[in-house]
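User: Okay, second chain of the day. Same drill as before: sequence in, structure tokens out.
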Amino acid sequence: MIDQVQIYVKGGRGGHGGMTFHRAKYIPKGGPDGGNGGQGGSVIIQATHSMRTLAPFKYKKKYQATDGGDGISNKRSGKNGEDIIVRVPVGTLVKDRTTGEILADLCNDGQKIIAARGGRGGLGNYNFTTSTRQSPRFAQGGSKGEERTLILELKLIADVGLLGFPNVGKSTFLSVVTKATPKIGNYPFTTIEPNLGVVEWKNFESFVIEDVPGIIEGASEGVGLGLQFLRHLERTKLFLHFLDVSQTAVMGEKPLDCFDKINAELKAYNPKMLNKPQIVVLSKSDLSDLETVNKVAEELKARQYPVFTISSVTNNGIDQLLGYTIKMLKEIPDQKPIVSEEKNDIDVDRIYTLKSSAPKFSIEKQQRGSDNVYVVKGDFDQLIHSVNFDDLISTRYFQRRLKEAGVFKALEEKGIQDEDIVSIEGIEFEYFK
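Assistant: Same drill. Structure tokens below.
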């Protein structure tokens, strides 16, 4: 089962640097004292065990952090924007919708990633004083926060995995104790894909249970879909190992032989799998004789396995089984999933670093009457807010920044001539070499 939603996240904008000058009763012409802008808030995605599904995101899909405050006089910085923490279930994969890049695989409780970083606050004008520039009449604008559309994919990490040969009663049990609707039939290989469900049985505490296709001999070597579904069981805390003790067992195997063969496959796939607790479930008791059931139970108890006899048709023994399962789950500490070094490509505890790319821009030549207009499109919003176009020094700073960004070189490659018009973020000026 994979639940998937799409959300939009946006970091807050950084506050603009202040452009002020000190004023006091006996100091009519004080120096620059504009404070720095505050940092924009970030959007943080954090995994938590308190959530099981992505259902809440069906109703809220946009998450935007607050902007940083602008710098003010007396070199006082603006207030930082507040971060937003978006909580998701453990087992959530975070992807960038545009690039398809995986940003994080949140496998552990409390694990988090900054999905949209807040913008940097701009510097106040007092930062730009030099020996030759005593009264800068410009300040740095705050930068925009990151924004992106994300895909959240939930790969439920089941608490309990169901083991057993095909058609031993796992799917029927799942359908009874959860709202899952697996395909059920009296023939081998009923289940062909994993089924997950949340157990909400009477007054018992809830937990996630997973039924995978019945394991067959050779599964650890890739026979059938063995490897694909053995991987699903690596994230579970314990196993319910189902054995068919009815007189109509489809596979025709003795229950104890089946038990040993399944564990042999687990060991061959990854020996650590045998360290997980197993509760043995003798299923289909309504179709079995008491002597057979007692014989199998005694042998398994002698091997120190807890054994429960149930019937998913009559619900006999289910209360006792679920009660013991919940007790066991509480006693098992949280742990990282078992990962097979050779046969598994699951990368747990993985956080992918977000790389910031260099600013990009495009230039479009337009004709406005007899004038050639070169429209420069890109992320120049912060630069525009940094400039006081009535101040010569500030304007020179603006021109230098454009040159450093490669804008002038790109304009020349486009064929710009003297007195042609350049338009950037609504600001227009004539070009001269």
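The domain at 361-430 is CATH 3.30.300.350 (GMP Synthetase; Chain A, domain 3).

User: Thanks, on to the next one.
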